[in-house]
């Protein structure tokens, strides 16, 4: 019998393998990964610096231990170059590996900023454990760090770097941070919280160039201002990895498109995690991929099971101003009711009948996220 093949050993790939083994201990399983296959929890990467954690301290089991735990073959440093859905196989270098079912858990690539200058290759991004190791090494001794992007990951790193003693500048094109997730009052609270721990904001601007300077780098902004810095971190977004799938004729748009059974447009090929667009939703967070992994494991074990998404609030790990946000389900429209006070901001997105559709909470108000989440409609019922 050909194995189930999972491409990717991130949280999506390994969680699926774990869930599958709860239901079926014997089906042959192969996990192929371009990286070292070490288990780690990616969310830890953006709040580990202040705790002085090295990449090794954040990591869990090595690939051989994972292979044993999962009763699977784990092929490390093995990049899948081609999927052949007709022959039902994948190619890694010169090796052809046949599959009975194929799961794409390929993750997403950090978007590279378009920059001029002679130091663009020094711009860092942190999207996996190996990136974190490199980043930590590069900022050792760096007093000033400039972050391009004031979204979730940029804000988390800003908070962490500040607490670790660095002087942080953030360049963000919108007039307030996390503008895709938060209403203005909540975003401004986060902005104030981070400013309070020493972060300098450059809102309404983009970086146009990064050049080497006598000491460190010079980041030039679109208004001509120049930030002197010792390291530059780009956190301007993630793009689901779709090209491998597209080259095999598997349909993709923002992500690899799958239905609620996590089936792609090609028979016996599935996708989950950051690379997937599930019934129109691209949700690059841990809770959705856990729900996907449970459903897909059941399907692979013989019981076709659609993924169900409850409301899934996202916590922004910025202790300077904790934030919890639940995005609005589907096409529902409503309006924000915002209350601000000593305890932070409580912004409720409500429909005409006052039904709760989403929320954004900051400071102490973030503590009521679980109670509020219970009142939200499911994202995929
Ligand atoms: P990845 O972990 O990226 O795994 C992709 C895997 O695919 C890798 O093993 C890679 O080597 C492999 N691969 C890719 N292409 C190939 C190929 N061609 N051949 C072989 N292997 C291949 N989410 C939250 O919910 N809460 C948080 O607090 C949070 N914090 C975060 C902080 C940071 C800094 C980042 C970057 C993300 C954070 N997220 C958070 C998002 C969350 O971590 C991700 O949604 C999740 O880890 C994605 O897992 P994944 O397995 O889909 O992708």
Automatic annotation (TrEMBL):
Cofactor list: FAD
Keyword Nucleotide-binding assigned to the entry: answer is no
Example GO molecular function: oxidoreductase activity
Concerning Pfam families, the annotation shows: Pyr_redox_2 (PF07992), Rbx_binding (PF18113)
Q: Mainly resides where?
A: cytoplasm
Q: Which domain of life is it from?
A: Bacteria
Q: Which SUPFAM superfamilies match?
A: FAD/NAD(P)-binding domain (SSF51905)
* Residues covered by the FAD/NAD(P)-binding domain: 4-280
Gene3D superfamilies cross-referenced by the UniProt entry:
3.30.390.120, FAD/NAD(P)-binding domain
Gene Ontology cellular-component terms listed: cytoplasm
**What keywords is this UniProt entry annotated with?**
Cytoplasm, FAD, Flavoprotein, NAD, Oxidoreductase
Subcellular location(s): the record lists: Cytoplasm
Residues covered by the Rubredoxin binding domain = 306-376
Cited PANTHER family: NITRITE REDUCTASE [NAD(P)H], PYRIDINE NUCLEOTIDE-DISULFIDE OXIDOREDUCTASE DOMAIN-CONTAINING
UniProt record similarity statement: Belongs to the FAD-dependent oxidoreductase family.
The entry's protein name is Rubredoxin-NAD(+) reductase
Please give the organism: Sulfuriferula multivorans
